[in-house]
Amino acid sequence: MQNGIGILLIFLILTDLLLLGSSRLRNAIRIGAAQGVALGLLPWLAHGHLTGAALLLGAGSAALKGVVFPALLNRALREIHVRREIEPLIGYIPSLLIGTGVLAAAFAFGARLPLPWESPSPLLVPAGLFTLWTGLFLIMARRKAITQVLGYIVMENGIFALGMVVVEAMPLLVELGVLLDVFVAVFVMGILVFHINREFDHIDSDQLTALKEGAP
Amino acid sequence: MGVSAASWIHPVLALALSPLLPGVINRVKAFFAGRNGPPLLQGYHDLWKLFRKGGIASRTTTWVFRAGPLVNFACLLAALAVMPLGAVSAPLPFDGDWLLMAYLLGLGRFFTVAAALDTGSSFEGMGASREVQFAVFAEPALLIGLAALARETQSLSLSPIYAGLAAGGELPLRILLGAGFFILYLAENCRIPVDDPNTHLELTMIHEVMVLDHGAVDLGFIQWGAALKLWVLGALWAGLLPLGALPGPLVRLAAGAGAILALAILTGMVESVTARVRLLRVPQLLVGAGVLCALGLLLTFR
Fold first, then answer.
1. Per-residue pLDDT averaged across B38-50, rounded?
2. First and final CA of chain B: distance in angstroms?
């Protein structure tokens, strides 16, 4: 069981690094989906045994992040004809190197963070923090709105993983509420991206700061 | 697990069996392409042919040109003296030999590059430049990976490191370093995602173009050296497998050699199903290997 949760968390970290280094949006969405499905196993592995709550939470999150979100994002992708992130604000190799630094910081921070409960795995807090920060980084360092939405989902994945530390204390309702929030947010963002694209012919969010259309 | 008579078997085994490895890779590639391919023992035939030939060297070259292949071969021989296989101790282990091994590979590369530059050919200079550029990314990955192993097993010499690793250890660490070392193995041995050993165009070659001017005995040493490098880096990878449970040093050595052959088959499969990545993307691949090794190192700090 300990090995299982260890490998799962390593997988989480590796998918984060892949996301930092991938330019094709379709691939990135696929990686995000794989991450979501893998996280569905986490409640079960963290509890150590299969409870009704863990099953519901795991299956719900896997279905939402593995099927619904990718379908929404892929639909948006089809409609706006964007295939890859051309010029990210921070390049892919620097992103990977920054990611490694952030990973080291996550490990250092995770070792010092006082926890009210015993963590199911020593890797859980660093992996969760790293996923959270990867999501934030994607939101900051990429131009396309689609990648930023993906970053938001990855961030939620990190919060989900971190929530497993307090899995005994946090009620099921709170977790489900967070999931619902994210679902609505992604739904709204998917529609927004489509509308932004129809209005401005692109989804480069950094150009939205210049509001005067046409004027110098 | 100290030095014993069995320790000397590995270097001899490596020298004798390494020319088989390129043959295995070529046969696997031929199988995937639906061809018969060259015979498995082609490497030995080539070496036999080359070592009987008399060589010529261009008048613009100096002794550096002749020294390149020999120094590279000698470096790999020296690396074999500290490289254990199948949790059997190497013949000459000492504290810090993992650092020496990394630098021996570096020294061999330096002389290959120097010999290529010595010819004054622009193509060879281009190949040398690429080789060095990729080495800049590959070497940190190797050192970080070895440092992770040293920390995990709390020892400073390759033989106790691999003996400790064979006894048991973290599964996640093995998987991470296994993936990282495999990318390094492909890159250092000029296999397909990084370099294509069968390419016929000087512009796209990396390693092949550096040895274009060598012939006869020198070329023989280059080919044997390349095969030995496959073996040494293969042993580095094979040591990550839990071979310590097997009884007796001879069985473990055989299992280690089997793992190296299996790695050659895997390489042939990778070469058959993947295309070469663009030159500009190679650093990204190697940084990826470095990140995998760094993650392994982070795991040992818990």
1. 92
2. 28
Q: What is the ipTM of this complex?
A: 0.72
B172·A96 Cβ contact <8 A: no
pLDDT score for B12: 92
- Write out residues 51-110 of A within 8 Å (CB-CB) of B: 92-93, 96-97, 99-100, 103-104, 107
Which two three-digit tokens encode residue B32?
A: 């995937």
C-alpha dist (Å) from residue A1 to A7, A123, A166, B85, B301: 10, 14, 18, 31, 21
- Looking at the 3D structure of chain A, how many domains does it have? 1
Q: What integer pLDDT is reported at residue A177 of this predicted model? A: 75
Q: Would residue A188 count as lying in a domain?
A: yes
Is any Cβ of chain B less than 8 angstroms from the Cβ of A19?
no
Q: How confident is residue B1, by pLDDT bands cut at 50, 70 and 90?
A: low
**In this structure, what DSSP letter does residue B38 have?**
S
- Number of domains forming the structure of chain B: 1
Which residues from A are below 8 Å from B299, CB to CB? Answer: 123
Q: Do A21 and B171 touch (CB under 8 A)?
A: no
Residue found under tokens 């529609």? A191
Confidence at residue A168, expressed as pLDDT on a 0 to 100 scale? 65
Residues A21, B284: C-beta atoms closer than 8 Å: yes
A214 part of a folded domain: no
Chain A residues close to B294, C-beta within 8 Å = 100, 103-104
- Judged on CB neighbours under 10 Å (0-12, 13-18, 19+), B38 is middle
By the 8 A CB rule, do B134 and B283 touch?
yes
Q: Establish if A216 belongs to a structural domain.
A: no
Q: What is the extent of the structural domain holding A17?
A: 2-209
Q: What is the mean pLDDT of residues A12-28?
A: 87
Closest-CA residue of chain A to B298: A104
* Predicted confidence (pLDDT) per residue in A69-88, tens digit: 888 888 888 877 777 766 78
The reported pTM is 0.85
pLDDT confidence band for A215 (50 / 70 / 90): very low
What is the extent of the structural domain holding B267? Answer: 5-299
Give one word for B86, left, alpha or beta, with left for phi > 0 and alpha for psi -120 to 50: left
Torsion of CA A195, A196, A199, A203, to 10 degrees: -130
Of B288, B298, B302, the CB nearest to A96: B288
pLDDT tens digits, one per residue of B98-110: 999 999 999 999 9
Residue A56 dihedral angles phi and psi, to the nearest 5°: -60, -50
**Minimum Cα–Cα distance from B176: chain A residue:** A10
Beta-carbon contacts of A148 under 8 Å, excluding residues fewer than 6 positions away, are A138, A139, A142, A205
CB pair distance less than 8 Å for B284 and A111: no
Residues B185/B263, Cβ–Cβ less than 8 Å: yes
Residue A31: inside a domain: yes
Question: Which residues in chain B have Cβ-Cβ distances shorter than 8 Å to A7?
Answer: 171-172, 175
